[in-house]
Fold this sequence. Notes:
By secondary structure, this protein is mainly alpha-helical. Among the domains are: about 45-125, Orthogonal Bundle (Arc Repressor Mutant, subunit A), CATH 1.10.10; about 135-175. Helices cover about 60% and strands about 5% of the residues. It has helices at about 5-25, 45-55, 65-75, 80-95, 110-115, 135-155, 155-160, 160-175; strands at about 30, 35, 100, 105-110. A two-stranded antiparallel sheet has the order 1-2. Strands 3-4 form a two-stranded antiparallel ribbon. A hairpin with a 2-residue loop joins β1 and β2. The two termini are about 25 Å apart.
Amino acid sequence: MDTALVNQMLRRLFTNIVFNIVFERFIKMGEDRYMGPPPWAFISRRGLREVVLWLLSDRPMNGAELIRSVEEFTWGFWKPSPGSVYPLLKQLEAEGLARRRQDGRYELTEAGRNAARLIPWARAPRPGSPKSIDEVVEELESWAMYLLDVATTEPDRVAPYRERIRQVGEMLLKI
């Protein structure tokens, strides 16, 4: 598939999933009652520690990648400054929770992974991680409908990927 199309599809999927999670967990409080902006709109340097531990529990990252990941995760509500991120990484390293690798990326130590597991909100399913087979099937159906719409309105965009889409369809038929 065209990289731009895949990126657009993934952005759209991520945005929908995150919105649904945020709406259900943070904004919707009951029948017709809603609270204000999501919690991360108010996160300051204090919350950065938990967010960095959570992000590093996925994969090693350097400071610039962490800044970008926080900004993406919060839809641009929060972009921590290098003056917050790099001292925090040094502090995590000094506490034995993270170590800097040869490539400049930081990874969690065993103690860091244990600390990340203790973050209450981090125990919830990650945005984008399906909770059930039903949700996976629903997402697949939505993306199939999207590709059909694109194939109908802009056939030239989908034409180069028809064979690959057919192969994905064959894989699904084996289930």
